[in-house]
Amino acid sequence: MYFVIVPIVIIVLMIVLTSIRQIGEYERGLKFARGKYKSIMEPGWHIVWPIFESYRKVDIRVKVIDVPEQDAITKDNVTIKINAVIYYNVFDAKKAVLSVENYNYAVSQLAQTTMRNIVGTVTLDELLTERERISSSICDIVDKATDDWGVKIQNVELKDVSLPQEMQRVIAKVAEAEREKMAVITKASGEVEASKNLAEAAERLSAAPGALHLRTLSTINDVSSDQSNTIIFALPVEILRAFDGTNAAEVVKKITKKSE
Q: How confident is the model at residue 9 (pLDDT cuts 50, 70, 90)?
């Protein structure tokens, strides 16, 4: 009797030991009994009886999918190549296994299709300047579609937008034209400010007696610092006015009165 019980106990013990399955903290398990869903296996040790039961692990950590480069046409009929990165995780292991065959492949394909569709609704300028808004739109659409799969889309980021060489040259010309435009506007604004300052300076100089003479002498002093310069000195208008006929007559009268 003893020789019969011991082998049986050993066999049962081996079956129990080989039936132990470990589920990690970052995983969830689905147990199936005779092919039917039975329960969710939380982290820890679980018994899965051979032949009668089976199980499948699902990783619930955030995963990253690099969406392959896609050919797309923008709203203004520009052909581009675009790729993206998707961050997602499984929030319902039961749906991820029972609702879709391969949720990783399904999310990737859905993201590619959605990305091409969204790019087709925006112009090239919008795609280049509003990448954050477009990424958010793709994320919202994909996330809504994957709810039934037990998958949560955390974020979608557009990585790179490749343009044809011809379009790159056109964009470079546009940027150059914009720079030239800004340069002309800045130069014109500077000339306007300079003219206002010159007008104000001329008004102040004309209002102060002798100010023009001092300014003239200051300019001559600045120029004379270099000995190679030749200075042609022009008499100020105020000095010439002293020889005007009317002024000269008044000067003569004043001298006559003093002599008398």
A: confident
Domain carrying residue 88? 63-163
Same domain for 75 and 47? no
pLDDT of 96 above 80: yes
End-to-end CA distance of the chain: 168
**Segment 229-255 mean pLDDT:** 54
For the entire predicted model, the pTM comes to 0.62
Q: Is residue 244 part of a domain?
A: yes
The answer on 29 and 105 residing in a single domain is no
Q: Across residues 215-225, what is the average pLDDT?
A: 68
pLDDT at 251: 47
Examine the domain organization and report whether 147 and 128 are in the same domain.
Answer: yes
Residues 68 and 155 in one domain: yes
Number of domains in the chain: 3
pLDDT over 50 (residue 259): no
